[in-house]
Amino acid sequence: MSVKHAKPNLNQSQVAEMVKRLFSLTASEMCSLPSYDDQNFYVAAVEGGEYVLKIMNSEDSKNPTLIEVQTYAMDFLDQNGLPAQKAIPNTAGQPISMEEIDCGYGCQTYLVRLLTYLPGITISKAPLTPQLLYETGKMAARMDTILQKLEHPNLSMLQRENFIWSLSYVPLLETYMNVLDGDPLQEVVKSVIHQYKTSVVPQRSSFRKCINHGDFNDLNVLVQRDESDSYRISGILDFGDMNSGYYIHELSINIMYMMMEHPKPIEVGGPIIAGWESVLPLNEAEKDCLYVLVLSRFCQSLVLARYSVTLHPENAEYLMISSKKGVHILPQLWELGKEQVEKVWFQSAAQFRDTHQMK
Q1: What is the CATH number for 45?
Q2: Does one domain contain both 48 and 153?
Q3: How would you label 74-104 residue by residue, b for 16+ Cβ within 10 Å and e otherwise?
Q4: In this structure, are 218 and 299 located in the same domain?
Q5: Exposure of 350 by Cβ count < 10 A (0-12 exposed, 13-18 middle, 19+ buried)?
Q6: Same structural domain for residues 75 and 206?
């Protein structure tokens, strides 16, 4: 969760010094990249190669073992043919460096990694064709099935109890509900949380467990044009929300964020579900809970973005990217109702599957 003064704010000369000292690389080009809680820099090196330097916020830096597992998972996906970043070892041969830095509010410890740079643009900037949406669903399912094979001595770190961004802990949002005081959305959010408690929680024992990326969103998926001028997924970023969860959570998160980028949000679900089910067909309980879980993610995004803005008003524009769009989509979906939305999603998924099989 965001904490005031946790976000680092290094300048470019500090970053250049750090890259030289920790990785023996000389920065020839550098620019800041957007981030919710951390500080990221694109770095091109004189010695060759393009990288992303990630300086984690001081709160998350207190848990280096968790970051170590996430870094290992990225490498594991890369080894299994998925486009994830790899950590470059520092001069001591370690993927993680702990740095004591004063960012203006006393000396704090920040966890630093240099990651490989992946080419492409964020999927938020690409036209979301049904085929590309299908690919996101397929990629998300492939990713989770591979992560399920992950072995690491500290894998239990991913059991992140009461992790506010996990779809296992949606009722925790009630603590932050005052950020919506006076907003008609507050009633919708309360209703969704009630639905979650009454319809999702009782069926959770039928969900299949897995390790979730947890934030497969429109800014964390990169795409590139291929030879036929179609967009293909070229990168999966930001494993900071990885947690032990359920396959259906990953699909719900995927659908929710792609809805943000589409002119007709309800049309997003079908192709993504078809892509997902080409790898991992849903069971009945998972199908039945998908609607409420997608809405629950909208609620998390809205409530937690508003809360973060109270802590970081200077970063409001970036923090509110998702929630600005979600403000309109959430009430529309709630108004349409579960039956209507499911009908659109699952009928269109079936049609998409049929046309795929005919090709």
Answers
A1: 3.30.200.20
A2: no
A3: bebbeeeebbbbbbbebeeeebbbebebebe
A4: yes
A5: middle
A6: no
For range 52-76, the mean pLDDT: 95
Q: Is 256 a member of any domain? A: yes
* CA 3-201-166 angle, 5° bins: 25
Tell me the CB-side half-sphere exposure of residue 77, using CA atoms within 13 A.
Answer: 28
pLDDT exceeds cutoff 60 at 1? no
| Per-residue model confidence as pLDDT tens digits over 318-343 | 555 656 677 899 999 999 999 999 99
**Among candidate residues 116, 142, 167, the one where a domain is terminated:** 116
106 and 145 in a single domain? The answer is no
For 73-95, what is the mean pLDDT?
96
**Residues annotated catalytic, as ranges:** 215
User: For residue 283, which amino acid is it?
Assistant: N
Asked if residue 2 is part of any domain, the answer here is no
CB 268 within 8 A of CB 128: yes
Q: How far apart are CA 139 and CA 229, in angstroms?
A: 19
Establish if 4 belongs to a structural domain. Answer: no
- Give the structural domain span for 40: 12-116
134 belongs to a structural domain: yes
Measured between alpha carbons, how far is 187 from 297 in angstroms, rounded to an integer? Answer: 16
Together in a domain, 107 and 128: no
Arithmetic mean of pLDDT, 70-88: 97
For range 176-193, the mean pLDDT: 94
CA-to-CA distance for 164 and 1, rounded, in angstroms?
A: 7
105 pLDDT tier (thresholds 50, 70, 90): confident
The phi, psi pair for 222, rounded to 5°, reads -100, 145
Domain endpoint, select from 99, 116, 133: 116
pLDDT, tens digit (0-9, with 9 covering 90-100), for 120-136 = 999 999 999 999 999 99
Task: Give tens-digit pLDDT for 154-171.
Answer: 999 999 999 999 999 999
Whole-angstrom Cα distance, residue 102 to residue 109? 9
- Which of 337, 338, 340 is CA-nearest to residue 348? 340
Alpha-carbon span 153 to 64, nearest angstrom: 14
Does residue 147 share a domain with residue 106?
no
